[in-house]
Amino acid sequence: MKVTIVGTGAIGSVKGTILFNHGQDVTFVEIRQDYIDQIKAHGLHIDYGEGEQVVPIHITNRIADGGTPDLVIMAVKSYDNVQAAKDVASVMGPNTTVLTMQNGVGNIETISQYVNPAQLIAGTTTFGSTVLKPGYVKSAVGVIHIGEINGGMTDRIHKVADALKAGGFEVGISNNVTSLIWTKLLVNVGINAIGALTLRRNGEIPGLAPAAAVQKMVVDEGAAVAKALGIQFDVPDIHEYVKQVCFGTAQNKASMYQDVERGSQTEVLAMNGAIVAEGKKLGIATPANEVITDLILARQGRSMASLL
Q1: For residue 231, what pLDDT is reported?
Q2: Angle between helices 287-299 and 177-198 (to 10 degrees)
Q3: How far, CA to CA in Å, does 143 sit from each of 1, 16, 81?
């Protein structure tokens, strides 16, 4: 299977190396020159908790170098989707499938403006990964769930699942990918920005009374918006599930925490900001998410080092 991974951040690196290690033809596409130079010169260093492996992966800044892929995995941040989708559209063939497992909501809608929606599928992943520095990634192995955007069990989704399983992943198929995405959204809403603002690892949040109180507020607001949209979660109790994820990834710094450490742009508008935007459309107040969003927007672009 010819696979193009768009983006070599934490999740893209993990998915690409697992596929590569299981014999797939993988090309990484990246725009950051320091990442390209590092990986070309020294390989991609990745540690799944059993020691570091160096992977001689193919990386380029020209998506055409990967040829016409069978599968494209979108692994850029949500705010980079427009250019990434335009690039992907330029190399797609009639049988290319594009898979987004990105954080937040709105990714499907943005990518569909440039990529044939009939060739787009979506899903979620439970990999907890961290970029230590360009070309160096630490990760815990997780599970992938995928599904057709409009639901249903198709031959295509089974073929993609089988290909990913052959590529070394544990894969589940969902008949309701919207439920999966919103369940993951509420996890991100309840962890990412709180970790970034308090400088706490995931496992610390539920045990800190002020942080836990904010977590409950933002998740409550998200759940109210989801209910108004007719979306059911993929778990019995969304609050308990968010806590379980906190404890299950206790030592992780959330991706937004990592972003503010680097002084990078964050995905808050696709997470807490998405709850605010949908709430306004529905006439549902989301004050906690609005404050969280504004604080992260005020914070981003300044690295931790710049404040010391």
Answers
A1: 94
A2: 60
A3: 20, 14, 23
What is the per-residue pLDDT for 50? Answer: 76
**Residue 54 phi, psi (nearest 5):** -110, 120
Q: What is the mean pLDDT of each run of 10 residues along the chain (308 residues)?
A: 91 88 92 92 87 90 95 93 96 96 92 96 85 83 88 89 86 92 96 96 96 98 97 94 93 90 91 97 98 93 53
Closest CA to 20 of 35, 1, 40, 48: 1
Domains of the chain in start order, with CATH, are: 2-175 (3.40.50.720), 178-307 (1.10.1040.10)
CB-CB contact of 272 with 296 (8 Å): yes
CB atoms within 10 A of CB 213: 10
| Residue 308 confidence (pLDDT) | 40
Which residue is listed with tokens 């699942």?
Answer: 161
80 contacts: CB under 8 Å, gap ≥ 6 = 7
Q: Which residues form the catalytic set?
A: 184
CA distances from 163 to 28, 135, 139, 155 (A): 18, 26, 22, 12
- β-partners of residue 138 are 47, 130
